[in-house]
Amino acid sequence: MSAAAKVTTDRHGATLVVKINRPDVRNCVDGETAGLLNAAADEFRADDSLDIMILTGAGDVSFCSGADLKAVDTLITRPGARESGPMGVSRITDLGKPVIGAINGYCTAGGLELACWCDFRIASANAQFGVLNRRWGVPLVDGGTQRLPRIVGLGNALYMIETGVLIDAEHAQRIGLVQEVVPEGNALDRALEIAEALSNYPQLAMRNDRAAALGGLTLSEDEGLVFEVKTHSETMSDPAMTEWLRRYAAGDRPPPLRPPQ
């Protein structure tokens, strides 16, 4: 896509970087932007050469400040909004591959919901998170009430949802909202580093582990254990696993991914 597009996509090996490109309005999302995010997710899902998607925002000021409140009607009337969510992707649950959030600056309202849609989040030190839409009576309708409690626990989620408090990256990491905090401006680079490592793993086992973890959230432990076995019905015969076990037996020990110091 051109640099003027409201959403840009760039390929880095097997990683697709999807960037909300409206820095002049803190990367808020209108109907056109939501449609482009939806198209990017479709591209990622359909392309077997892509293993990882990274969602981020242009510039260092904002990941996404939420819906464009001056164009809310375009979010509601966008074709497919009911199925995919007003912000474009929040109701998509069938990508089947990891999505990493690279969070820079403000991550608020619907932007926080987009971040929660990602599998996990890498935050720049200047990142800030909050349900700021609380001040205007705008509800969370892009999965925030469902995903945030699953990520940070009910008490932390209700604290954020009810108060509209704005928390910094350190606080967000402490409650599990983000998994790593890196120096300002480095979130995308670190996300790309992680994505490259993930792409080098045998994909079937990782994707099926991901599916089992997500699909088991609403199951009892006994049901979840059965679901896990069912999900991995084809994993043990994956040629990639056989090859990696051969390499292990031969003494090949790839270094583990480690968090930044």
Layout of secondary structure:
Blueprint: E1 7-12, E2 15-20, H1 31-46, E3 52-57, E4 62-64, H2 72-77, H3 81-84, E5 99-103, E6 106-108, H4 110-117, E7 120-124, E8 128-130, H5 144-152, H6 154-163, E9 166-168, H7 169-174, E10 180-182, H8 187-199, H9 203-215, H10 221-231, H11 239-249
Parallel strand pairs: 2-3, 3-5, 4-6, 5-7, 6-8, 7-10
Antiparallel strand pairs: 1-2, 8-9
Helix pairs in contact: 4-5, 5-6, 9-10
Question: What would you note in describing this structure?
Answer:
The protein is an alpha/beta fold and 261 residues long. It folds into two domains: 7-199, 2-enoyl-CoA Hydratase, Chain A, domain 1, CATH 3.90.226.10; 203-249. Helix content is 41%, strand content 16%. It has eleven helices and ten strands. The protein has helices at 31-46, 72-77, 81-84, 110-117, 144-152, 154-163, 169-174, 187-199, 203-215, 221-231, 239-249; strands spanning 7-12, 15-20, 52-57, 62-64, 99-103, 106-108, 120-124, 128-130, 166-168, 180-182. The strands form two sheets. The chain has a six-stranded mixed sheet with strand order 1-2-3-5-7-10, sandwiched between helices. A four-stranded mixed sheet has the order 4-6-8-9. Strand 2, helix 1 and strand 3 (52-57) form a beta-alpha-beta unit. The two termini are 36 Å apart. The mean pLDDT is 95.
